Amino acid sequence: MKKALITGITGQDGSYLAEFLLNKGYQVYGLKRRSATVNNENIRHIQDKIQFVSGDLQDVTSLINAVKAADPDEVYNLAAQSFVADSWLQPIFTGQVTALGVTNMLEAVRIVKPDAHFYQASSSEMFGKVLETPQNELTPFYPRSPYGASKMYGHWITVNYRESFNMHTCSGILFNHESPRRGIEFVTRKITDAVARIKLGLQDELRLGNLDAKRDWGFAGDYVKAMWLMLQQNDPDDYVIATGETHTIKEFVEIAFKHVGLDWQDYVVQDSKFFRPAEVDLLLGDPAKAKNKLGWQPEVTFEQLVIMMVESDVKRLENTK
Ligand code: NDP
Ligand code: GDR
């Protein structure tokens, strides 16, 4: 039986990846931070099947112990301070976790289990103020936030461990991917949660920032499969994972409201509080390499994704009402 260690197991991607690997017959270990309150909403349905190991990306001792406990064939490093907006409010913490945390994890693997295959959760935010469109594996980086800069460090240190120590390390440059398990502060989930609340009479407006930014949005369930595929290859490499389509925040809003029979213009208010010190205006990925080498392609369309998220939030809120 193959064994995998996932950091960030409680997050959106950690939960989908754990499900995916359990279905493939893996024994799944999840690194989990101690928390004063229970934080297992995304993994409650599978928590009995996961072996949890206590740890934090900032504490290399805990990571060494986690790799020892799991003795993994594959390590998926998904943990991060992942909210771009907060990275300006907590730039040092973001650097410690999202940048240096990657080296901590790589060191733990290098010391304890150097032949484990390693996946690093890199991001399209590294392209930032984009230098070419669409963006592919060779597009130069120009990060626009402490988060983007941290992910760029994480990306290059992953490449360096591959080239310095001959480790099987892969960096997945994933464009935005969403789901009903997306954190509530990210724009897609904020929109679908608000649409459901407005529809059910629990809220009367939705305050948003920049509606013109464009993102290449896919479904998280499709994207975790790409992570796994990367680690099954003989040669470790880096891959862009994206849909190859881009849409504005406004388009997302329009479809979400329309699905419940409402006109977004009656409810959406622009609020300067949600504008960022520096914006990433346009992301559009070219997933050709992943398609050719991994045989990967996304299955859920943009419209299906929006509707899946709206319907899930409506159902959830109806149940709690
Ligand atoms: P989430 O924010 O949903 O999950 C982040 C996870 O990291 C949580 O499990 C969180 O644990 C954990 N974590 C945070 N800080 C630490 C720490 N110091 N030590 C250990 N664990 C920690 O992110 P996603 O699931 O959306 O994303 C997964 C990864 O992919 C992240 O690295 C993200 O930056 C990256 N990424 C995401 C994309 C997306 O569109 N979703 C696109 C490209 C990259 P806790 O529950 O305790 O807070
Ligand atoms: P992003 O996701 O920054 O792309 O990072 P987010 O959903 O936070 O923002 C997307 C775009 O929406 C605009 N926006 C708003 N954003 C939020 N959160 N709240 C608002 O009210 C709002 N109004 C407009 C933003 O300005 C931005 O342009 C996500 C994270 O998952 C990262 O971890 C990951 O690396 C990247 O995707 C790829």
Structure write-up:
With 321 residues, the chain is an alpha/beta fold. The chain has 2 domains: 200 residues, NAD(P)-binding Rossmann-like Domain (Rossmann fold, 3-Layer(aba) Sandwich), CATH 3.40.50.720; 96 residues, UDP-galactose 4-epimerase, domain 1 (Alpha-Beta Complex). The chain contains 10 helices and 13 strands. The strands form 4 sheets. The protein has a 7-stranded parallel sheet, sandwiched between helices. The chain has a two-stranded parallel sheet with strand order 7-10. It has a two-stranded parallel ribbon with strand order 8-13. Strand 5, helix 5 and strand 6 form a beta-alpha-beta unit. Helix 6 runs parallel beside helix 8. The longest helix has 22 residues. The chain is globular. The protein starts with a strand and ends with a helix. The mean pLDDT is 98. Bound molecules: NADPH dihydro-nicotinamide-adenine-dinucleotide phosphate and guanosine-5'-diphosphate-rhamnose. Guanosine-5'-diphosphate-rhamnose binds next to helix 3 and helix 6.
